Amino acid sequence: MKTATIALAASALALTIMSSHTSAEELRFTVWTGNEAHLKMLNGFAESFKASHPDVSVKFETIPPADYTQKLTFQLAGGNPPDAGWLMEDAAPTFANAGVLEDVAPTLNQAQGYNFADFSKPALGLWTASDTVYGIPFSTSPFVIFYNKDLFDKAGLEDPLALAAKGEWDMARFQEVAKKLKETTGKWGFEFKDGQGYDSRIMHALMPPIRAYGGDVWANKECGFDKPEAVAAVQQLHDMVFKDQSIVPPGEQGDYFSGNAAMTINQISRASLMEKAGFKWGIAPLPTGPGGESPVIGQAGIVVFTAGKQKQLAADFVAHMTNAENVAIAAQFFPPARTSVLESDAFVTSNKLIPAEQMKIVADAIAKGKVLPSHDKSPQILTAMKPRVDALWRPDANVEASLKAVCEAIQPLL
């Protein structure tokens, strides 16, 4: 049966080749978005690529973000690699060191009018080594607070944007208003990013408060989870979950985007979900803390896989996706690493759902922020962390002891 199947497939392929003078080519490109607006934009890039490559089509394959890195790894190891795709910042060093990313520098440097020097050097840090370019960041997106203006008004509270303008938006006020919101509206005060802060978004939940308190997690190859700053930050989150009951707890869904939580943390790509939200909303900076203003940036790059069947064609498409014109189009969802686009008036007016003065918050955070921590052993580190962090999210957990256990687990990997 297997031999017959192979023979049939070969015959079908031969017929296809004979029936056409020019064979169409398809690029496989993996992404983690299923958002209709994002996919419409991406397919637009694929369509405009036909101007120079008329026989090429691009198939965007969505893998859910929680499974993305693992499933991509399986595809590469299993001999079924995509040609190109998105890559998260924490996986960049691992994939580069494993030798599975193609150097796209020759293609970018030869692309007409590309102007590689327009990219911010700090933004390229994770994606380059000397003259080698493993990927191009398409999203250098800071975390911001999304808030439900209607719920703040109902609770008689100033919203985070107004508090930030007065210099009063800090971690203490964040805890205070979240508790008040839950008590007066019956809705959750705060929800972690995409409701996944206890699972696939662990670092997205922990890093903003830890940095606000002046801490870090593995700077200089030393675990910082058990340092006083990190302990204080995580203790505050723990208190909000179990004492104040203002943060959506493990096992429950808040769903900010449906109006069931007054605040969440996310990036502006999620603003596309707000068009039909049914309530007034806005974005504000992350709350400050004892460590001062400490914006946290999530970054993602576009890469070409060495094992792909059409590496040069894939590199050409990456050059097309990340030219100045297309970066300006993508900026409505994904804050750019191209300096010319980021500093333009077009950027702050690029997203029709977010007022220009609020988009300036995004630009300011990019200028001042630091990218989420990465490491060439990030997958192993996160795996080692997981059971220790799980133990943290219990009502009777000893936060300091739990974070010490995290350090004991990951220090050998650092």
TrEMBL record:
Compartments it resides in: Periplasm
Entries under PROSITE patterns matching the protein: SBP_BACTERIAL_1 (PS01037)
Record GO biological process: transmembrane transport
One cellular component (GO) term of this entry: periplasmic space
Keyword tags: Periplasm, Signal, Sugar transport, Transport
Principal subcellular localization: periplasm
Keyword tRNA-binding in annotation: no
Annotated signal peptide: 1-24
InterPro entries with a match to the protein in the record: Bact_solute-bd_prot1, SBP, SBP_1_CS
Similarity section: Belongs to the bacterial solute-binding protein 1 family.
Name this polypeptide is given: Multiple sugar transport system substrate-binding protein
Species in which this protein is naturally found: Neomesorhizobium albiziae
